[in-house]
Structures
1.
Amino acid sequence: MNEREEELDWASTEDGIIDEVKDFAKASNEFYGDFYKRVKNDRKFEAGEQWDDKDKTNRGENRAQVTINLCSVFVNAVVNPFSSRPFKFKAVPRWSQETYENNYVKAIVENGKPYPDMPQGGLINEEIAKLNDHLSKLQNDFCTNESNAMGFHDSVSTGIGFSYATIDEVMGEKVIKYLHIEDQTMVILDPDAKGVALQEADRIAVVDFMLYKKAKEVYGEDVVRSNKAEKARLTDFGKSWEVPKDHVAVVTYYRRDGHDVEYFRLCGDSIVDYGVFEGLEYLPIFAFTGDRVWVKDKRTFSGIIRKVMSEQLIVNYSQSQLIERLAKSPKGFFLGYTESFEGNEECFQNAEFGTSQVVEANWQASDKKTVLPLPQFVEPKIVTADLQSIIDQSINQMSVATGISPNGIVEQNLTDQKTATEVLLRTKSSQSNVSNYISHAKETIRIAGNVIAHLCIMLYGLDLPKGSYDIVVEEGCVSLTKMEEDREKLLALAQIVPDSFKPLISQRLVRTLDIEGGQELSDMLYNMLPAELRGGAPSWQEFQAQQMQMQELQQQLLQAQQQNKQLNDQLTQAQLRTQTDLIMEDKRFEHDVQKMLIQNSEKEKVDAQKVLLEAKREQVANEQEMKKIAMENQTKITEKALNTVAKENAPQEKQYPIFP
């Protein structure tokens, strides 16, 4: 940041800049005023201020008002993974050292000077290593991580949050700070800003209010020319930023000036600070944004609170009604004959408050003959099922509206009985429903990384001209949510794979646990896997191929059985044909014999023909029997061969313990 105070004509500039800021703020308020009102209401609602005067009117006075704040549960389901594993940014060289040197020489030879976008001088990799060292120290600072987490939380809950980068002086040394803007409604946004993180903006400002007395101590007695806070020129610049009584507005205003960014700090009637960030690509205030929505023909933002507000109120109403039912429920009582209680009234009245398990009662009536039944304790029943059902339905509607289970981005309830397909589809749905928050935050942090890297180069005198490096953002919470997604998928697959594959799934499941010693535990489970699952363990595709091969063998065996049946049918038909032929042959023989008897009466000739016919009959019968035996043997040989092939190719089923 270079000071240019000597270039400013303060007398003519102050009024012009103050008027410029007021006009800018009024335009921003016109566009974002209603949105900021919604943000303030959403913040109160998330904090638990969920009852108002309308509720008293609708429900009546002196009614129970119970708040079971589930909003923060859904917000934290998205924010916690981000906070536990934040995004990190670093610089990477746009040119390798070798490419830089070759292209530099080539440019000098051809053009007599380097290419316009080419860095000049310095060892790129060494300078980038120094830059990354500064960036790493800043990101390891608690304030930096907390600023990102709080800005992300604001975007998830209300739709927008902010952080900013600046150079401050601490104990005489200039340092870079990255901080969160606590009240996002105190940022004056450019109505024409574009981009996921509103980074394509020409102006932006931050408003603060300071007691007039303190402002004079900090910035000088003449900070307000009229010596009255209410008459300061920097007032009345939008309902979103109304100046409280006895306070003055302190506005830090940034605007683009060519390739530079100017900043002005205004208080009352004065410019109390001024500077320039030379060559800064983006304004140094960074917006974390949620869902982009259209409201009253204006494109603004929305968070989770706005989505679940109605269902949250239903939960509160139902829980309040439940409390009232419990408060109005009668005490338990003893039911019996009056004579049973006579003389023991005090004992029965104090029965539920005492510690004794014995309660005396009269067992005999006054006539000394009738035996009285013992008094029975009656516990009044309180109906709650209807209200509990409403509460459960409301929570389910909140999950549907946000796409988030109250248990987290990926539901961890292992007792929830759903099919594997439902689990996988639900996981993808949840990931896509929250991915906009995470992807927007990732882009915001990349932009912040660009600004902070530029400030580091300016502050520490690094030889890294613009264009010599790029800022990249590492996975951060994306890897954590990916692990959760993988875990859910593995649990789903465990329901459908054979038992022989479950030890392998258990070993893979451990890899998805973000726990200390997880890798060692995974290695131990791997070593305990069967030999066929270690090293060259079959993949799921290979396992499916084996299953298909088994199905083919079973089909072949079925075909062989069908062929065997066909052969048996053919044999039966052949036997039927043979019997028919024999009958026909007998008929012909009888006809021939009768004919011979008519033609020749010699008995010897007839006997000879009978002998010949009988011999022929035996020959045919023997041939049929041999054919039948041969076909039966062939069928047995075929079945035995197919069964042998099926056993050799069938996988060996083994039972292994599943890691819990």
2.
Amino acid sequence: MSKEKSEELDNWHNVAYRMDNEGLEYRFKHYSSFEEIEDEEFHAMRKSLLHQMDAIRDLVEKRIKNIDETDKYIERGCCSECGEGYDNEPEWLYNTECEVCGHPIPDNLIIKKS
């Protein structure tokens, strides 16, 4: 095997080792762009992978935010009869009953005017 082929093989083994032991995201996004690898298909796939990793991270963050927002909505108080939020909008902030069904808001969820 030529020295060139041997170096190329070592480079590929190095990529495989790092993928297995350091994780794809760390390896491809934060540590190396693998400039020593001269393979267009590899780099196209690497860039696609980076794009997909960003997309999945954005999706996960969006799902977390959505759940957090939903949880905050529930914590502020929702009508046990119809599920309408009690204090989500300024004009209903000080209501003592649900603006949709008229069910009384529990005292601990009523916001008192200062």
3.
Amino acid sequence: MNRELISVIEQIGREKGIDKEILFEAVESALQSACRKSHATIDNIRIEIDRKTGEFCAYLRKRVVDEVTDPETEISLAEAKKLNAEAELDVELEIKQERPPQDLGRIAAQTAKQVILQKVRDAEREGIYSEFAGKEGQILRGIVHRIEKRNVILEIGKAEAILPEREQIPGERYNPGDRIRAFVLEVRRTAKGPQISLSRTHPGYLARLFQTEIPEIQEGIVLVKATAREAGERAKVAVASTKRDVDPIGACVGLRGTRIQVISRELRGEKIDIIEWSHDPATFVARALSPAKVSSVVINQIAEGEGQPSAVVIVPDNQLSLAIGKKGQNARLAAKLTGMRIDIKSESEVETERSPAEAAPAEDRAALAALPGVGPELVEALVAAGLGSPAAIVKAGHETRGELGDCMRTGPSRTCLGCRRARPKGWLVRLVRLPSGTVVVDASARASGRGAYVCPDTACVERALSRGRLAHAFKKACAPAPDLAEAVRAAGRRGVGVPSCEAGSGADVCETGLMAVRASGR
């Protein structure tokens, strides 16, 4: 019988994948519980099974005392010395019973059965949890077993996993027996055993598919830096290469798109945009909004822990709808991909916000040009300063007119690299190219050689530093200094680069115009 017990334990261990030691401990625990159930007085018993022969022995724990009052739990010191020469008072000894309890009864046997079954179930659940706990974030294949309230139950080896409705790709239909792949979202312990949650909409599923289907990603030559998805419709993936001679986008697309088509079919025809990742946040944001073309990007950095960084993106008017996408989809995916809040504006919107006075009516401009000493350049300067009509000059006050006169003159004008408009030279900041090729601010406004001019305005500065305008202006290869944009804005605030005006020239023009306006009654 004992040999049969060992054979049964070995067979169960093989079938259920449970260690034999766990089963032996389960049988020992079951016999111990049965003994306690059958013999209410025996509460200090321990059962041990020989792993080779299957024989089991019972041990009773007894306390060593001077005078025995309860033979079931106590033993005299003299008898204890016979069993163990080192025995002392108030020490518990385990005494082997010559005949273990035999008559356990039906209830005790039923108790033993329940304990063994419970131990086996617990061992099975722990084995399943250990097997899948380390597979979170990986892709598993399963067979659809059944569908419960739109939740799909899959068989994955010896375990069952659930694919909730919210984690299913919209429009997909599943039937029992279908083989599908899914992303392991979470493995949890529950009262009914481990619960394995799957997903087919998680961005990590897309990243794992790229790793599975593209050898360069498996080898670490191409890296998936970020993913963003709207399951079943569109996704964006940012990739980078660790080797200069490997094109990350071409490696992911494959010959005639074979690689990306396999991934798209797995995701029910989901459209996937692959972009090249960049260390520069502005460049990354511009690429994330592809296929729309971006004019400039301004990153608003926020101190750590204070919130989400944001970016202001300026696009041509004909690219605005493409940058935003259908129902804002392209902008949402770009925001998820970059981790920034993105504000998209057209060039016309920026122009309107930057200088609303430039939209002055034609009659007001004509009235300004009719003032004594006011030429076309000065008209543009007055409009840029917000004085787009004779009435605006009257309302500005003497102090404002004096400040305007200090930096205006009727002399030469220059074209701003950013807005491409002719401005009075005194309103612009001069840039020069050093022999090293670096473009810096001409603080003295007297440096020799070719110079370029730009308005000390954020939008103009951003435009001037993009699209190779500097190289075109200097007719040579050049690169802006790292802090050039801030230096231009600072120079504009300090008035650096503004040539000195002839005494009273600008102010006289304003005051002469003011008298003419008052005399005309406008």
